[in-house]
Amino acid sequence: MKRLTIDFMVGIFVLIGICSLAFLSIKVATNFNIGSSNNQTYALHASFSNIGSLKVSAPVKVSGFVVGRVTDIHLNTQTYQAVVTMNINDSYKFSNDTSAQILTTGLLGEQYVALQSGADTEYLKNGDTITLTSSAMVLEDLIGKFMTSMTTK
Amino acid sequence: MNKMIYIIATIGKPFADLILYAGGMLNLLIEIIFSLPYSILRLNLILKEIYFSGVKSIVIIAVSGWFVGMVLGLQGYNTLERFGSVTMLGSVAALSLLRELGPVLTAILFASRAGSGMTAEIGLMKATEQIEAMSVMAVSPIKRIVAPKFIGGIIAVPLLAALFNTAGIIGSYFVGVTLLRLDQGSFWSQMQDSVDLHYDVINGVIKSAVFGAVVTLIAVYQGFVAKPTAEGVSNATTKTVVSSALTVLALDFILTALMF
Predict the structure, then answer these.
(1) Amino acid A36: pLDDT
(2) Residue of chain A nearest B199, judged by CA positions
(3) Which residues from A are below 8 Å from B when comparing CB atoms?
(4) How far away is chain B from the Cα of A46, in angstroms, using its nearest Cα?
(5) Contact partners, residue A129, CB within 8 Å, separation at least 6
(6) Which residues span the domain enclosing B206?
(7) Apex CA B60: angle with CA A16 and CA B45, to 5°?
(8) pLDDT band (50, 70, 90) for residue A39
């Protein structure tokens, strides 16, 4: 076989392979890469008395639209509340009285942080803390409340 | 007394063989690694190996991937239907292909399609004393024959696995969306939601590169230790396929435990 033919066939093979890899990384994998170098982000904190099963890299949504990701969750040892750190895309600004809530997608889906913008004209800056928070809905607590209300009736 | 010694020796033989096998393989690997800087410059040899092991495997890999994807689509659909979550089909198919099926099945197909050929080639070269002739002419058989195959395997297997995954995902799309009338948008969006570029795609590529190296190493080693007879070469080819399949499956467990 001629050298040129081999080169040509190997070239086609490598191109097919690279096209497949591109297909896998663009069409199949998540292309929402907040926090990568081209997307500027800023950090916000929020403390919750119960975060349920919220995990790092869970989405942060406004009206269901993803604006950021949870980057860190740790426990504040003074207040014994869970502090959630979120990276928000720089192009979205939120007022000082924004509230944060932990919600669940569907009945058994993954949990995410939902932000609800307020009316204040001042915007939250990098490193600010969201003070208005409400905790995750825990199914066991709800059932417990339901049971106690049943028995008191 | 003699019988006793004989029994203990029978127990010991497989272990001694195993240690010899592992040692021989490690020796070969070290020799290959030392000859890599020289062989990497001989691009035409590497290209030839990629042609024989990679380009000629495109059809079998693409067709197998397509069918595996279609089966995943059907089975996934039937199982997920019970829980009313058929929209998860895309992510089920993509995750199982990218993480496990793609790299493992590609490596096993590569072992039977290309690895057996490598063993037969080297075994026959040994039987017809071409290897000795090379050494006499001061051409190192490791640098000239083995190292290019090794590099070729490392380059070809990840590309073949990517092709396998792509064909598989298209196959499951075909069954799920075209035949079973799932919603096209939720198929892709569920997939994109659950597949992560670094965690799933890149780890799959690393896995298949490791498998490529291991399969070529086993193939080449079996070729070198084959008895220089027709029967010896045929035995060595069988051994290549069997032991690469077993090694790939065992290694897959270890890599999965480390990565995910």
Answers:
(1) 46
(2) A29
(3) 1, 3, 6-7, 9-10, 12-14, 16-21, 23-25, 27-31, 33
(4) 25
(5) A44, A45, A46, A47
(6) 2-259
(7) 60
(8) low
Q: How many whole angstroms separate alpha carbon A26 and alpha carbon B185?
A: 15
Pick from A13, A18, A33: which is nearest to B54 by CB?
A13
Dihedral of the CA atoms B192, B196, B201, B206 (nearest 10)? Answer: -170
Q: What is the pLDDT of residue A30?
A: 64
Q: Are B168 and A30 in contact (CB under 8 A)?
A: no
The mean pLDDT of B140-161, rounded to a whole number, is 92
- Looking at chain A, which residue has its C-alpha nearest residue B200? A29
Phi first, then psi, for residue B41 (nearest 5°) are: -80, -20
Check if the interface score ipTM surpasses 0.85: no
B89: closest CA among B201, B189, B166?
Answer: B189
Name the minimum distance, in Å, from the CA of A50 to any CA of chain B. Answer: 25
List phi, psi (to 5°) of A48. -125, 145
Band (pLDDT 50/70/90 cuts) for residue A108 is low
